[in-house]
Protein: DUF4402 domain-containing protein
Amino acid sequence: MAILLKYEIYSFRLCRHINALCLRSVIVFILSIISFSCFSLCIVPERMKLEFSGMYVTGLNQKAKSTPFSNRVDVARFYVEGKPGERVVVTVPHRQFIYKERGRERLKVNRFIYGCGLSKRGIVRIRSNGRTPLLCIGAVVKIHAKNSAGRYSSAIRFEVNYK
Structure:
């Protein structure tokens, strides 16, 4: 009788401990799913390349500019998905290059230009459907006399964060 009572008390404590452990793991799992879906940002690419075609004359110092409009194919275009109503800021690192398709020549990007749905400082608000309007990034490069004619293009690096 004493052994049976001791076994029942021991199994009750063990069962209670296992139930508490399962409950904790389920709560942690549910909280991680809720927090991940609420606070994550997702970039939906449409076209992520900057391009400068060979229409510029070599031998002259001139500036090439890809102005960001929604119908331009030479700018980087994308959407951002996240929490509705929140403001998002897009930042681009300064030192980036655009490379020639063939060869090792490169052009340094002097300035990035924000357009389409982005403000001049790269800020946009996420709409109620959880997605921003179309966002565009263009660039200004200086073509030196030493650069040969050709097609220069490159994917750009940028960062998207909540403001």
